[in-house]
Design a protein that fits this description.
The model has no long low-confidence stretch (mean pLDDT about 90). The protein has about 110 residues and is an all-beta fold.
Length: about 110
Amino acid sequence: MESIHMERYKCKLKKDDKVKVITGKDNGKIGKVLKVDRKKQRILVEHVNMVKRHKRPTAQNRQGGIVESEAPLDWSNVMLMCNKCVKPVRIKMQQLEDGKKVRVCRKCNEQIDA
């Protein structure tokens, strides 16, 4: 039987990061992170994983029809893009002299956090 508490994994991705999709139907697409859901381990990327919803006309939204929007994907399917390498890279956490933690590219050791 599975445990009641869901194990939380650390996500090194943040809002407004540039990521590249590494698997799935949108493989190779690059987009900006709009939202990170740490509880469900999902990530919403701009113009990636587009789905069509059929909306009924309502009092607030008078016009119905087919609306296209982004759907969340699993964060294991994307990699962070390094600004210096211009490639998808793995990242590591590094502690500065003042005690602040920053994300660093594993290939070129460039700081990702400004």
